[in-house]
From TrEMBL:
PANTHER family, per the entry: 2,5-DIKETO-D-GLUCONIC ACID REDUCTASE, NADP-DEPENDENT OXIDOREDUCTASE DOMAIN-CONTAINING PROTEIN
Entry protein name: Aldo/keto reductase
Example GO molecular function: oxidoreductase activity, acting on the CH-OH group of donors, NAD or NADP as acceptor
Family under the similarity heading: Belongs to the aldo/keto reductase family.
Length: 286
């Protein structure tokens, strides 16, 4: 394995260090595909892998990390609590299932995947217990808005150390980012490349030509300069390498503003206040 790691670590509010660039494994098939992708990423110096129980590939994630030969403590692993597992106070059992599938005795970060109304606060209480017991080094939320964060804050206790949301040049939500930064909550992007739907944008390509970088590299660098951590997903080794090569240039203020101006509120996934109907229509939940 390569000795150099991808630069750009950040520190969460509890003092835990976390890489600012990681590999997302959503929709990667368990087994050979997810294992080969993770091994390629670790070879390129990645040290953050983001999975979830809903992805159905936690076993492959654990296998890949063991096959890499890299000590477990050197790799930051995230998983998430799925919607169905918030029923009947099942949070602890769901967490233990994820640990068992991964083959680990702790997680670096555990997130509420979606804020199920009337249930995510109870789930958060259990996650605080897991954190206090040392079974997870940091806890946070995903697909949440300011009112979800405020409801958690009003309950008191341990606060989210990270929020993972859809984020790309078409969906920035700067007010939410500012809110999180003011409260010491690290913002992290899923789908930072908009599932590839924005890579042909002329503004991004022109900026890329200026720095001799691809549109994808420009987007990821833009996110990092905004203080947002990124989880680009790819199963191709060359793309995995390319997505990590974003620390040898810096976008100008003017280029940052040009990219900011691309926002139009477009989502590739569900809105955090409408996801239950979204997943029912897709047949994901009953």
């Amino acid at each position: 394995m390569r000795s150099e790691t991808v630069p750009g670590n950040i520190t969460l509010s509890n003092g835990l260090k976390m890489p600012s660039v990681g590999l997302g494994v959503y929709k990667m098939k368990d087994g050979r595909e997810v294992i080969s992708s993770i091994l390629a990423a670790l070879e390129e110096g990645y040290r953050l892998i983001d999975t979830a129980s809903f992805y159905n590939n936690e076993e492959g994630v654990g296998d890949a990390i063991r096959q890499s030969g890299i000590p477990r403590e050197e790799i930051f692993v995230t998983s998430k609590l799925w919607i169905d597992d918030m029923r009947s106070d099942n949070t602890r059992q769901a967490f233990e299932r994820s640990l068992e599938k991964l083959g680990f005795d702790y997680l670096d970060l555990y997130l509420i995947h979606w804020p199920v109304p009337g249930k995510y606060i109870d789930a958060w209480q259990t996650m605080q217990e897991l954190y206090a017991e040392g079974k997870v080094k940091a806890i946070g939320v995903s697909n949440c808005l300011e009112h979800h964060l405020e409801e958690i804050r009003e309950e008191g206790g341990v606060q989210p150390m990270l929020i993972q949301n859809e984020f790309h040049p078409r969906l920035i939500q700067q007010d939410l980012i500012d809110h999180c930064q003011n409260r010491g909550i690290q913002y992290q992007a899923w789908s930072p490349l908009m599932r590839g739907k924005i890579l042909d944008n002329e503004v991004l390509k022109e900026i890329g030509q200026k720095y001799q970088k691809t549109a994808a590299q420009v987007i990821l660098r833009w996110a990092i300069q905004k203080g947002v951590c990124v989880l680009p997903k790819s199963v191709h080794k060359e793309r995995i390498r390319e997505n990590s090569q974003i620390f040898d240039f810096k976008l100008s203020a003017g280029d940052m503003e040009s990219i900011n101006s691309l926002e139009n509120g477009t989502r590739t996934g569900a809105h955090p206040d409408e996801f239950m109907d979204y997943f029912r229509k897709k047949g994901v939940i009953g």
